[in-house]
Amino acid sequence: MPTVEEASSPTVVLESPDIGALESQENSPPKQHPEGLMSEGGEETSSTTATAAMKLEDATSSPDYGGDSPKTIIRRNRPGTKLADFYQWPDLALEDMDTTLAVQQYIQQVIRRNPTDVEEILSMPANQDEGVWKYEHLRQFCMELNSLAVNLQCECTADTCTQMTATDQWIFLCAAHKQPRECSAIDYTRHTLDGAACLLNSNKYFPSRVDIKEQSIAKLPSTCRRVYRIFSHAYFHHRPIFDSFEDQTSLCRRFTVFVLKYNLMSPENLIVPIPGVHTPPTVQGSDYKPGETDA
Ligand SMILES: [Zn+2]
Ligand SMILES: [Zn+2]
Predict the structure, then answer these.
(1) How far apart are CA 124 and CA 169, in angstroms?
(2) Which class is domain 94-269?
(3) Domain ranges within the chain, ordered by starting residue
(4) How many Å lie between the centroid of ligand 2 and the Cα of residue 155?
(5) What is the DSSP secondary structure assignment for residue 124, as one 8-state letter?
(6) What is the pLDDT of residues 198-251, one digit of tens each?
(7) Which pick of 69, 166, 173, 232 has the fewest CB atoms within 10 Å?
(8) How many angstroms is it from 253 CA to the middle of ligand 2?
(9) CA of residue 237 to ligand 1 center, whole Å
(10) Residue 137 annotated as binding?
């Protein structure tokens, strides 16, 4: 294997664009590893999972030629990078992102710049395929909703929330089973996010991330409707968790603007109020009956 070298910054600037050499770069400062550089085998073993996860999120690197000599900026958080140093690399224009993950990379870049700037995040670049744009945003929502699920499971358990509800109007059935059935709220959350991940990664419906068939795009509204219930359960049953997550991410606001903009959900199903964006319909009076739905 090539020699492991040190670099002081997470934005690794290398003289050589040789990707084989880049793969073995170690960018943690020595003080983070008091034992010094571990053997290559040990380092690789301990970081395999983290590295794989990072590659899924931002598996891109692009050459950036500047100054007197060619330099390569690696847009990747290497194992050992401090949280404060995550994503410390310069932005890249969408047209300069030459990978099949360019749209995801672009969306994540705009979110990192300012997660509360929903309008900017959802502004589709010119000449972008709208189906791919919607698909990549929904993927991103599902990834970020996993963080809300992690926060929820501190207090949302099969004992505290035996059914998936938001208001008293509906009990939502979990569609992740052969026959839709009642799952506890936290199980509904896990099963629905797993189901969404399976669908969005399915080779049958989404074999490509640059060219998506209309029939596959037609799968997106039902996924939106199901994952939205995670927001509404959190809002009506775990308000402090919802509020603190929303303060940091504006995720429910972004989701609401997204589904309204692209007609992916009917406004009457959006029951979390988003100031300046959406006011939910008032709950019907005495003529409504509680019911079950997997719609
Ligand atoms: Zn709950
Ligand atoms: Zn279930």
Answers:
(1) 36
(2) mainly alpha
(3) 94-269
(4) 18
(5) P
(6) 999 999 999 999 999 999 999 999 999 999 999 999 999 999 999 999 999 999
(7) 69
(8) 26
(9) 6
(10) no
